[in-house]
Amino acid sequence: xxxSECPMGAHPTRPRFLIRNRLIAALSRGTVVVEAAVRSGAxxxxxxxxxxxxxxxxxxxxxxxxxxxxxxxxxxxxxxxCVTGPEEVIELAGTMGTDLAPEPRGPVLPRDRLDPETxxxxxxxxxxxxxxxxxxxxxxxxxxxxxxxxLGGLAAAGYVERVSRGWRLRPDRPPGG
Length: 177
Fold this sequence. Notes:
By secondary structure, the chain is of the alpha/beta class. It contains seven helices and five strands. The protein has helices at 14-26, 41-51, 69-76, 86-93, 116-124, 133-140, 144-156, and strands spanning 30-34, 55-59, 81-82, 160-163, 166-169. It is rod-shaped. The two termini are 56 Å apart. The mean pLDDT is 87.
């Protein structure tokens, strides 16, 4: 498809490139300005996107770069949302509720799969000395019966061990593991 505001055979001129930017902004859900200087045609497109009530995002480069000053100004003025990758652009301009980018997070550790009460118990366990179940219950903020029901499973899974003075985390267990 060819879309133009100029008749066939019109020669390209500098002002016509700026006019074209209005079409670019109008035909999209949003505009992403990438490392634009203060005098940039991309800022012209950004202005059209704002006027057309389209999403506007900016992906600036280093704060010391003159080629990013236009993006930084758009973000500082609250006209553009700072984005760092394609997932964030999709989240901004996609269909609400269906294109949301997942929140970045670290790897899922075995401890993350424990139920909340068992996690409280394991997080309350000392690492060097053993303590009794009542001390663990107070530190975990759960009742003694909960601690007693969790200890066997935690020991079988390798999280804790019974020592002469009570229970403690296994020393060979990595943090979060």
